[in-house]
């Protein structure tokens, strides 16, 4: 598949680079105190995109990473998709003004899909990534919100179909139970989504361990993959992964 994109991820909480285990704020691992330096390392490896998450804002609202985002944009060539705490069109515009190339909409996209669908027309489909983070409950893929702390009862498949009809282009899907677990991405889930809605540009997220997992996501029809814990722990080389994926 051509055009496959790798998104090295930086999750920030209280100004530090962290990862959460299965979205649990009580299970945090610290990876550093300088997210800008991590972004620079990814840029130096050849990454074209960065996935930047404000974990504090994801739970409490009020995006706090505008200064960091502006620094990254000023000092690297990275394009950035960033999210956390977007509650209004003004919030989204402030993130775009700070330099976000795409704004990632998670909880709001589940709670108020009509609002986000309207924003697809207002801001453009290339400026929005809808992040639908799902957990399988009794055979149904359900979508919790607020940093995965509140159950919504909304099904992934139904909401994705609505967004596709509204013109959504970019969607990120995380199997919460694999996030931060180094268990491999949920390739079966991604195959099902691609088969159902082939026009979406699907980003795999959660569980990527190595270059083989990246290749599996690509072969499942994904347009990209978000790289989190394995990359932070040096389990594979980003520059090598980029070379291999760009050669496909």
Largest sheet: 8 strands, parallel, barrel
Q: Please compute the radius of gyration using only Cα atoms.
A: 16 Å
CATH class: Alpha Beta
Order of helices and strands: EEEHEHHEHEHHEEHEHEHEHH
Q: How many individual β-strands?
A: 11
Report the uncertain regions: none
**Proper CATH architecture:** Alpha-Beta Barrel
Taken together, the total number of domains comes to 1
Helix content: 25-40%
Distance, first to last CA: 7 Å
- Label the overall shape: globular
Strand order of the largest sheet: 1-4-5-6-7-9-10-11
CATH fold type: TIM Barrel
Number of helices: 11
Structural class, by secondary structure, is alpha/beta
Q: β content, as a range?
A: 25-35%
Account of the 3D structure:
With 248 residues, the chain is α/β, with parallel strands linked by helices. The protein has one domain: Alpha-Beta Barrel (TIM Barrel), CATH 3.20.20. Helices cover 38% and strands 27% of the residues. It contains eleven helices and eleven strands. Strands 1-4-5-6-7-9-10-11 form an eight-stranded parallel β-barrel, surrounded by six helices. α8 links the parallel β9 and β10. The radius of gyration is 16 Å and the shape is globular. The mean pLDDT is 92.
